[in-house]
From TrEMBL:
Belongs to the glycosyl hydrolase 30 family. GO terms for cellular component: membrane. Residues 77-402 form the Glycosyl hydrolase family 30 TIM-barrel domain. One of its GO terms (molecular function) is glucosylceramidase activity. This is Glucosylceramidase. Residues 405-466 form the Glycosyl hydrolase family 30 beta sandwich domain. One of its GO terms (biological process) is glucosylceramide catabolic process. Transmembrane segments: none annotated. Pfam families: Glyco_hydro_30, Glyco_hydro_30C.
Amino acid sequence: MNKMNQSVLSSDARRNSEVEVWYSTSLAPGGSQWFSGPHETEHRLSQQPGLSWTAPEAAQSPALLVSPEHRYQEMLGIGTSIEETTIHNLAKMSPDKREQVLRQLVDSEAGIGLNLIRIAIGTSDFTAEPFYTYNDLPEGETDFELERFTIEKDIELSIIATIQQLIAIAPDVRIFASPWSPPAWMKTNGDLKRGMLKEGQAYTDALAKYYRKSIQAYAQHGIPVYAMTMQNEPLLETDYPSCYMPPERQKELAVALKREFAAHGLTTKLWIFDHNFIDAMGYVTPILNDPEGFAATDGIALHDYEGSPEAMSELHAAYPDKPIYLTERSVWGAEGADRIAQYFRNYACSYNAWVTMLDSRIGTHQWMGTPGPTLFIQDADQADNSWVTPEYYLLGQFSKFIRRGAVRVGSTYGSAETVTNVVFLNPDGEFVAIVINQSETAQPFRVLCQGRQFADSLPAKTVATYCWK
């Protein structure tokens, strides 16, 4: 397995220069060749010589203007998903190799410090197992009291043990959960695929109780669930676990679930929607314009498969008190890094990649399409052999340096033809600027901040992180 470039230094060592610099290079973004084996890239979170601040001066190179007095959203975290496909592949590994992969994900020194992990309530489409929930019954039966509720399947499949191990490595990791379908007996078609939640308060209350018991069951195993969405992609019905849930019904569920949480002393936050930019405003307004829906909602979750990140700025302008989270989208290359920067420039408080480890035969999943390469690829014939794709390092350019509680500060965007950027202020007073060159040639630029500047020339298809106090 590829190890992180040894030039990555501890957080203490990297405070010595005026401006500390790291590079990661893109290569064949999203290409299928990553499933056949590793390929070396020029820069992999490689530390560069430090840069010095100088007095401002005229130059031909573009200037990125940083305005620390302009402060925006506070960051919750950056992470990935630990869904059953990833866990199925991890379970094939020896204990030492499995520990190594998890440490590369969440350890802030030996890895890239991912600190926000998405899990599924029941199964998603990325699973090697038959689809299931925690309350599966023979056809025709009901269980409104949830007497047959159990997460035993999650224990059998090492889901619980894997998440426990991850938390043991990085106790500051926060977990959020998303269901792909209610139990089949609660649905109009009696199936985990497609369908809707049956009409009536009895079914709304039963589903709220089901989610409350899910959160409690995980807590009993030492896994606190910080937040949950109430339905993955509620506008989608398809041939894997899914459930169409219009906003009016999600509002009813949010109110019922908030009531369940309060009655049982749970503080798990509720994030509404969990679907694409293009439908966001139309979905959340019926919920948030209703006083009960507004009170029950702790945040808005978004996916990026259709529409523009600017939809998040529209949501922020309409509902400034409701944080926004980018809960699902994997991206590749320098263009993907720029897309992540755009999420943050449009008020996202988090970013989560989707699916962490497929094997070299692109397995094992039950999605309808062909996935792109994941952060880790496992050799399907030798489970202990795995490698990282460049996206591991490109994501690390963000996650290894931006701390929970950091706030985004003002900066001019730049351009795709030169460089683009996003800038944060960490809780300890350190600035972190991620600068992205999507072009085919090196791009010189300057950063102007608080009466001084530094300059660099960023190689083609490269993402850089600059840190200064």
